[in-house]
Amino acid sequence: MLLLRDNISSRIGKLLSEYSTDTFAEEKITYLVSRFITNCIFLSLLFLIAQIIHFKLEVFVFLCVYLPLRRSFGGYHAKTEYACLFISVALPITASYIANKVNINYLVGIIVYMFSYATAFIKGVVDNSKKRLKPEQKIKFKKQGIILLLGVTFIHLFFVKDMVVSNIIIIALFVSFGNLYMKNN
Predict the structure, then answer these.
(1) Scanning 29, 64, 82, 99, which has the fewest C-beta atoms within 10 Å of its C-beta?
(2) How would residue 35 be classed by pLDDT, with cut points 50, 70 and 90?
(3) Is the pLDDT of residue 185 over 60?
């Protein structure tokens, strides 16, 4: 599956780079097409499973909370693409299952929010060992992440009335900030 993706990305990169004056156009286009195909595979697989087990809303809410925070604060990276794909599909499905089976009370929700804000302010942005961020980039991502966290808090407090949606938001927050403490080897 990934070999096919790489072949398609490479061909499109070569084809489209002919129209560019950028010396790295082929590599950039190949990378972008590869990411696009990977994301399409991931989302298709995830929502297919969510459709089958009737967790579409929960998975959607989880992704809406988790992905922007993950993008801002960083965190754990799997060693292989297959492990990443597995974790990326299993995590929202498992979180959706838990959100449907467990009622998270207000005290646990408050503790998760306290943990999230403390982690955001104290630990901040965790960069990847393969791609280090400059200090100004970390500050930018931290500010962006804190604004996102405030937005999630506001929406959760004033607009979410459904218990399962509330549960999935709390679980997504816990996972988003909990993964910052996992070690990348």
Answers:
(1) 82
(2) confident
(3) no
Question: Do both 185 and 125 map to the same domain?
Answer: yes
Q: Look up the domain containing 136 and give its range.
A: 54-185
More confident residue, 131 or 40: 40
Residue 140 Cα distances to 37, 145, 148, angstroms: 28, 9, 12
Single pTM value for the model: 0.87
Same structural domain, 121 and 182: yes
DSSP secondary structure letters along 66-92: HHHHHHHHB----SSHHHHHHHHHHHH
Mean pLDDT, the chain, rounded, equals 90
Rounded distance, CA 17 to CA 101, Å? 51
At 13, list the tokens: 């990169």
Residue 13 phi, psi dihedral angles, 5° rounding = -60, -45
Overall number of domains in the chain? 2
**Residue where the block lists tokens 């393969």:** 130
